[in-house]
Design a protein that fits this description.
The structure is a single chain. The protein is α+β, with helices and mostly antiparallel strands and about 130 residues long. The protein is built from 3 helices and 4 strands. The chain has a domain of about 35 residues. About 55% of the residues lie in helices and about 25% in strands.
Length: about 130
């Protein structure tokens, strides 16, 4: 039996294991470095996305809360633009109440008002499809 063939095969498997190990280790370290946020900067409370409304492909309007300030931001594929700051106390209270309702898993009042219209449209589609 030719042992040089077996030795070559074992060397090749060892080299493959070393290369794969280096790739996995570098991917793990890269993931840790990229996703690492410096301590104390953001504990999940500094920036909150409250609402997002998509206007089209790669275009949306976002309402965000940054350190207690409500901001409305326009977002496109290449930039973000501050549209306005909400400073009216009545609107701020409404937004906080809507956020509490949504965090409890309940639909917003606006969504509740839209449900009858959605059901009506769905029923019309079903009737048209089945010819009744």
């Amino acid at each position: 039996m030719d042992y040089s063939l077996i030795v070559s095969f074992v060397k090749m498997l060892f080299a493959l294991a070393v290369v794969l190990g280096l790739m996995i280790a570098s991917a793990y370290l890269l993931k840790r470095v990229i996703s690492h946020t410096p301590a104390g900067i953001d504990n999940g409370n500094a920036i909150n996305i409250l609402m997002t409304r998509y206007l089209g492909p790669k275009h949306s309007i976002m309402m965000i809360e940054v350190l207690g300030q409500m901001l409305v931001v326009g977002v496109s594929s290449g930039q973000m633009t501050l549209l306005t700051k909400i400073t009216d106390p009545v609107l701020l209270e409404r937004m906080h109440n809507m956020q509490k309702v949504q965090s409890m898993g309940m639909p917003s009042p606006q969504a509740m008002q839209e449900y009858p219209l959605r059901i009506k449209n769905w029923l019309e589609k079903v009737r048209n499809k089945w010819g009744r």
